[in-house]
Records
---
Amino acid sequence: MTHIETIAARAGSRPDPTSGALSPPLQLATTFEHAPDGRLPHGFLYQRYDNPTQQQAEQALAALEGARRALLFPTGMAAGATALQALPPGGHVLLCDDSYFSFRALAARQFPRWGLTHTIVDFTDLDAVRAALRPDTVLLWAETPSNPLLKVSDIAALADIAHGADARLLVDGTFASPVLQQPLALGADIVLHSATKYLGGHGDVMGGVLCFAQDDAHADACHQLRLLAGATASPFAAWMILRGVRSLPARMDWHCRNARTVAEFLAAHPQAAAVHYPGLPSHPQHAVAARQMRGFGGMLSFEVAGGREAALAVAARLRLFTNATSLGSTESLVEHRASIEGPESPTPGGLLRLSVGLEHGDDLVADLAQALAG
Ligand code: PLP
């Protein structure tokens, strides 16, 4: 089997037949010539339907996830919303309790309009997941590791539960990327990534992708919905994502290494009341993470002793960690998630989420040390 480093490094790279160029071309055309009899000589009709650069990015992403098919979208939210809207009306969705907060908002506000219902469950408690199943459950929506508490759920066990109930399992694997976790190989049916994060990798492109284990009716329904509703990624975004993917494994290794250094420093610091990082043996699902992940990722969160005000003060004192949302870029970021998620947020007030970037780990630790010293 070809290693993921090799698949990524060569993604989209084949000599262009017209010029011999090695790096993937960017094709911006919105429309493509028909043959006199109406056929499409190259299979392309109109950019919204399909286009060569999007197709190249999708082939690369499908190869990285071991998927039968991948569909690219302009954002991670568009990808997720499409997977949900394509479900049969009347369906019931089990949503993990620490899923990205906008998906919980989407479920609360939009599901009634789409004829869907949902139940929020702690996916680290498999008995609770089994108990929440209903005859009309069509999808289990897992996010692992989760945002922002870094909860880890057991993908293989969830896939068994889902399939035993004739439902699908979708895994939002944004925090792990395909390099650290391969949900389809563990039995999941669909993997979602916000390509805005590690896949793009440089904080300058938005995108989302759905990777399907089977080229089945649900994948087709998602494709149809994208085509008709118009949630097509721009060729430029697709090209940027393809460019990012080529260095993904090397970046993920460094993110993991830096995050471990930061997590170990925080775990020993008296001002850190709790550290949420699946790579720490003290993490409640460390064993599951060690089994299903190749590395523990670049994301972590910690709770500052003293709560909300103390956490805000620490964030304000940090110099290398920029106070900004999002994650997965080269520069380190810090965010007080409860402020962003709003008054209904279940996220602890003292929690700071860190996206650990590609700087030197010692510099990041020094920055945290000065900020925690006050
Ligand atoms: N999934 C996770 C885990 C996220 O953190 C995010 C965004 O932060 C999304 C999905 C949504 O992605 P996007 O912002 O590209 O729409």
---
Amino acid sequence: MDCVFCKIINNEIPSEKLYEDEDFIIIKDINPVAPVHLLLIYKKHVPTINDLCEDDRRRFWKVFEIIKNISQKLGFDEYRLVVNNGASAGQEIPHIHFHIISGRKLGKIG
Ligand code: AMP
Ligand code: ZN
């Protein structure tokens, strides 16, 4: 699979994993837009939210818990979550991920 996130998950591209469980990893974005810019990446290659099936959905309940825990661990409690869902929404890598952005005052989304 020619997908950069699958390669990171499979350790074909080295990365510093700040968190890992059976379903998700967290890494630092290679091109950060703020002092804190993490990516919470689903381990299974699902391109967009629109492609999730029942089995995937039941794994997503813990996403906010994971995000809350990493924010407490790294010491930031205010942050923006972004999911670019589809190319026209700015999604460059078609493999579901959440951007976690913090560390500076953020402007309006648009
Ligand atoms: P998106 O445009 O929502 O698909 O976001 C993809 C993000 O992945 C961008 O913010 C990129 O900077 C980031 N990215 C691309 N390649 C890597 C990589 N090898 N390691 C970490 N982040 C990456
Ligand atoms: Zn993938």
